[in-house]
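Entry: Cysteine desulfurase family protein, VC1184 subfamily
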Amino acid sequence: MNKHQTDKANATAFPVDTIRAMFPALQRAGDFIFLDNAAGAQIPQSVLDAVTNHLVAHNVQRGGRYGRSVAVDQAVADARASVALLINATSPSEICFGMNATSFIRLVSLGIGQMLSERDEIVITDMDHDANIATWLALESAGAKFKWWRMREDGNLHVDDLRPLVSDRTRLVACTVTAHSIGSIVDVTSVAEIAHAAGAEVFLDCVHYGPHGLIDVQAWDCDYLVCSGYKNFSPHMGFLWGRFETLKRLPTFREDFIPDEPPYKVEAGTFIYENVAGMDAAVQYLELIGRNLAPSNNRSRRENIVAGMGAIRDYELLLAREMLAVLKDCGATIYGVADEARINERVPTFCFNIGKLSPQRIVEEMAEMQIGIRDGHMYAPRLMKRLNLSMDSGAIRASLVHYNTVDEIHRFGEALRAIVAKLS
């Protein structure tokens, strides 16, 4: 079966119409097309129901002896178990909930800043979200030194370039799993092999990869990982995973009455319980996709997640190929992986420009045509500089997830051609 036959089979097999019917925002949107999913995905009805049920049935503080409070404790425990399955953690106690990924990156960086000693070097990249760069650079005052792992001209990080940067002075390698701006996927398993061979740790920003592919912290052999629910079909919240013993060693702020062990030592203060309940439901939604595609009474929850995320990945490769072809047909300069033969190195998040046309103007014209995309620096100033793009204008980003369709891509292409003709 050739590529086009495979794409057609994937398009036919993936139940996108059934999936779209699960999302109230898509049903109410009319002609509007959501192509700004990298800034936040929509949520299925089951997630909305979970949030509403929490607020109506037990919107109280956890830790009490009465039924509603006990129900909150159980909801948080259930969510830990679900997220642990989602990322293949060894134990739910390794899952820490909070406001967002950025705050967790800062929390870990502050702890690591107190443990630098002779291992005082941190490897960072010029392809990451600035939250996973500036947060580490802030440790310079604590004595940290930095090595830059730089993206190649082909739009990705190469592990061969990482090897000479890592030594017995390396404390940590911090990198993304997938670039939120240009969609490139990093070989994080090899990153861990290189870092651990030198006795260093690995911190992964998995926020953008979360909705697109299977997360497996055991297979990746990383030490820390952060993710956010808002891209993963959940309300706004974030979670941190770390190896239990690693989190246990990490210095954190906590009140004296908080147990000095994960996850409690990491979760300072009250977090948004209803959104944690929503994250639990989002994991169950991904399980449902896998279960419905190949019904079986014998599969575990994790196996259903594996099946669901595998189907999503296959379908999104189809979307990525279609979007790549449309952008090239429109004369776009595509930043990141633009070779169809390397499509497996990316997710369907595309950063591009059209000649010297204003990104802002194109995005405004798209909005008039009921298509939501984004322009700007994408919170990646170092990447913009690397791409010779101005922080003021930046680039255009169109980002798809598994509830988008090939028809939406074609409508986007028609709109882009009309806008280019109008503005040229």
